[in-house]
């Protein structure tokens, strides 16, 4: 492993980071990712102009991602318990498992209570699509899709890169993923400037996304769900523009036997997206089911790390 940590140590640190996240949740004040977002916006406004936007985008990515990653590497290079604590703390700051629950389960609660205005407001906080006139089915679909996709982006990709390169790996992945969310648009402003951010995120996410998709297949609650998840992954994922969101969302939708994808409103325009999964439309209860799938996948990955640690110990 690039981190130089043994598997028993990596497994213990993964467990510690996830435990801290579930116990403490996101930092309410002065969260590093908020500061990073402000820095990224500052740099983007000054470099995303004039000619050579492709090269300017690559320079901007380097300026905002590499210094924090190198700082993380320096912190984790400290010997003894201090270095191990730095690894665990960085993983805690990068992972977002509890955040997924806190942002999505209230949407399910609002839908069950019939409070559509609150459900629309809560959903608007986590997705970019328009929610002002969204129906209950629209909101449940949006939340479920967000949970499935961000299970990979906010949790499993971070765990994967931590296992590969420790705290610095988690930092690199999370910052790259954040920049893709900020700059990876195919519009006039970001088509060239954001291309480096989008391609780097695609590369870093390639393996974690497919491991996530496979995990969703394995953890489908029924045999029929497992078969459907695998079939949806193989047949539906290629239709999605994102090479990584397609496998994750199609397999997750198939595992839950839900019909996701399809029409969604962005900036007042109805966009017909490729289908995801198959079965019934999403309802409030399916948001909870999607959260449980993400949670169970986290447990699966921690168990795999534990088995790897056990095997390394007896080798």
TrEMBL record:
Gene: cbiB
Pfam families: CobD_Cbib
Pathway(s) annotated for this protein in UniProt: Cofactor biosynthesis; adenosylcobalamin biosynthesis
Organism domain of life: Bacteria
Full protein name: Cobalamin biosynthesis protein CobD
Keyword Cytoplasm carried by entry: no
Bilayer-spanning residue ranges: 6-24, 54-75, 293-312
Keywords: Cell membrane, Cobalamin biosynthesis, Membrane, Transmembrane, Transmembrane helix
Family designation: Belongs to the CobD/CbiB family.
Cleaved signal peptide residues: none
Compartment(s) of residence: Cell membrane
InterPro entries referenced in this protein's UniProt entry, alphabetically: Cobalamin_biosynth_CobD/CbiB
Entry-linked PANTHER family: COBALAMIN BIOSYNTHESIS PROTEIN CBIB
Organism: Pseudoduganella chitinolytica
Chain's role: Converts cobyric acid to cobinamide by the addition of aminopropanol on the F carboxylic group.
Primary localization class, coarse: membrane
Membrane topology summary: Multi-pass membrane protein
